[in-house]
Amino acid sequence: MLELSETFEEGLRREVLEETGVTVEIDRLTGVYKNLPLGVVALVFRCHPVAGTLGSTTESSEVCWLTESDVRERMSPAVAVRVLDAVVDAATAFRVHDGVNLLAP
Known about the structure:
105 residues; Nucleoside Triphosphate Pyrophosphohydrolase; 3 helices; 4 strands
């Protein structure tokens, strides 16, 4: 979640650092995802690491790099699609989900 005084970029960098121990540079917006039951919209960005050491923090018990196959196996469809959309060079995705599964537009 963004702090009131933060830009999108500042909030993204802060959140990634807090949860992974890694400082990132932002590449681009890769998707916009609406969770219908919660009424929440998530913006997902592709980033690349520039400093720090990947590891668990007070905000995450486990942090690791995953293959696309691992993502499909370990994450719900509504979360996995965010990661998979971020690794392809395509237009920004706009998707709606029910908290677990993607819904038709």
